[in-house]
Amino acid sequence: MSLAPPPVFDRWGLPRWLMERVWGLEHAFERARASGRPEDDTRIRIFVLLLLFSIGFVVLTVGATRAALFSDAVRGEGGPPVLGAARADLVDRNGKMLAADLLHYGLYIDPREIWNQAETRRTLSAAMPGLDRRRLEKALSGSRRVFVIGALTPEEKTRVNDLGLPGVTFEPEQHRIYPLGPSGAHIIGFSDAGGEGLSGAEAAFNNDIRTAGRAGKTMPISIDLRVQGALEDELWKAAAEFTPKGAVGVVADVHTGEILGLASWPVFDPNHPGKSSIDAQTNRAANSIYEMGSTFKAFTVAIGLDTGVATPESRFDATHPFQIGYRTISDYHATRAVLNLVEVFQHSSNIGTARLAVGIGPQRMGDYFNRLGLTTPAKIELIETRRPLTPKVWNEDAVASTSFGFGMNVTPLAVTRAMLALVNGGQSIPLTIHKLAPGAKVAGSRAVSEKTSLQMLSIMRANVTGGSGKSANIEGLYVGGKTGTGNKWDPAVKRYSNVKQVSSFAAVFPTTGDLPTKRYFVLILLDEPNRGHLGVDPTGGIAAAPTAGRVIERIAPFLDIKRQPEGVPQVIPVEQPADTGVVGER
Question: 424 φ, ψ to 5°?
C-alpha cells in the first residue's frame, strides 16, 4: 500500500510551500515574544517588509522591461498609435503644403464620474453646437467611459476643458488636415481616421507617406499649385457658364508624364468627405469613361501617317456621305469637297477620317490603339483608374466608329497618355503623380515615329490657326490641338442623344521647336454642357477650346514658356489651306 503525495495547494488555493513559510515566520514572532526579546520581533517584521517590497520592486521591473521589449504595441500590433508624424506632410513640387498631420483631441465621457447629467448635457450642447445629440445621450446613459467626438483643435479642447465638467476628459490624436479645402482634392485625396489613405495620392503613396513621416521628411507629388489654381479657376468658370453634369481638366509634361494639374468638377472638401456625395468625390479624370468624339481623329490621322497610308497632302472625298456596311457617315458641317489630310483634321470631317481608317484596316488600327494605351487603364499610380470599354471585334464597322471617337469609352487620363505619345517624339510613357527629379529620363515604348510626331505637332497647330480650334489660339504661344464633341448614348431610347454630349479640347503648346523642346499638354472636358449665355451648340470648339486657351495663357509663365513672335516656322511645314470660314466640328 502506497502513501498519497501531500497536496500542493491548501484549502484556500494557495501554494503549500508559501503557507509553510508564513507560519514559520509567525512562529518566529511568537518565540521572540516568549523569550522576552521584543526587539527581535521588530527586526524580523522590518526584514519581512523589506523583503516583500524588494520582491514587488523586482516583479514590477521585470514586467516593465518585458512590456517595453516584447509587447505588441512595440511591434505595431496593438495599443494606441504613437503620436507624432504618423503621415508625412504632402507637398506640391515646389514644397507648398497640401496635407499635414496636426495634433487634435478626442473627447471622452465617463458617466460614473458625472454628478449632474442634465447640467453636463446642457453645457456641452451649448459649447459644441455640432455635437451629435444622440451620441452624447448614449454616452451619458452608459456605464463606462466612451469616445464621443474627435478631431477637436487645441482651442476647442481648451474651451471645453475650461468648463470644468467632471467625467469629461480628452486624449490626444493625430488628425489629417487639408489646408486648401476643395482645391486639388481629387488628386490629393484623403485618409481615414486611422491614418489609411483612401483616395488620390494619399492612397497611391500610402506606405511611402508613412515611411517619410517616420523619417521626418515631406512627400512631394507632381502637381504645381500655381498650375492647379489656374486650371481649377478656368474650369469652374466654364462649369458656371455651361452648367455641365461634370467637368475635367488635366495639365501634363509631355516628356515626363508628370501631372502638373488635375481638376474634376463637382468638387468636395477632403476635410469632411462624408458630407459630400459619391458623385462629387468621383475623380472624373481617372474613374469616368467617355466616348470622346473627334478628339480621337488625332489618333487616326497619326496612325495613317505612321503606316504610310496617308501623307499631309493625301486627298479624301467628302463631297457626299460615306456608306460602310449598314451605316451612313456624314459630316456635322458638310464641306462637300475633296479635302487633303490637313483639311480633314481642320474641318473635323467624319467622312474623311472614316475613309482614312478603312484604308488603315482593323488589324493595324487595333494594334496602334494598343500601343497608345487606349485599350487598357491609364498607367498611373492612382487606384481609381478605370478600364476602358473597347470593341469586342476589330472589324471595319468598329474601325470606322472609333476613328472619330465613337464605339469606345476611355478615361480622360487614357486620352492624355495617348496624346503625349503623339507630341513627345512618339514614346508611350506612363503618367505619374510622383515628382520626378529635374532632367529625369522616362523610359517608354515606341508608339509612332519621330517624323509622325513632328507632323502631328504641325497639323494640330494648323487646326488652331485655321480650323475648329481657333478659339484656343493665344498669340505667341503656338497652341495646337483637336476639338471633340461626342453625342452620348441614351439607354432609354437605345440611340445616341441629340442633346446630351461630351465636349472636349486636347491642346499642346508650344508646337514650335525640335522634339526635346519643353512642351505641355492640356485637356479640357465638359460632360453634358448646356448652351450657356451664347445660346449656341456647346461643341468642343465653343465650350472647351476657349477654356483651354485661357488655361494655357495663365500657366505659360509658371512653366517658363515665353511668347514668341508670330510667324516662327513649324518644324515640318504643312501646306495651309485658305480659311474658308467653314468649321466642321463634331
Answer: -110, 10
pLDDT reading at 377 higher than 80: yes
Same structural domain, 180 and 232: no
Whether residue 296 is found in the same domain as residue 147: no
* Per-residue buried b or exposed e for 127-164, using 16+ beta carbons within 10 Å of the residue's own CB: ebeebeeeebeebbeeeeeeebbebbeeebbeebeeee
Q: Do both 250 and 207 map to the same domain?
A: no
Active site residue 294: yes
Same domain, 407 and 524: yes
* Proportion of the chain above pLDDT 70, given as a percent: 82
Residues 397 and 482 in one domain: yes
Rounded to 5 degrees, φ, ψ at 255 are: -90, -25
CATH code of the domain in which 401 resides: 3.40.710.10
Give me the DSSP letters along 354-412. Answer: HHHHHHH-HHHHHHHHHHTTTTS---SS-TT----B--SS-SHHHHHHHHTT-S-BB-H
Query: Is residue 148 located within the same domain as residue 247?
Result: no
pLDDT at residue 84 is higher than 80: no
Q: Which of 264, 294, 471, 504 is catalytic?
A: 294
Mention every residue, 6+ apart, whose C-beta is less than 8 A from residue 259: 187, 222, 223, 250, 251, 252, 380, 431, 432, 433
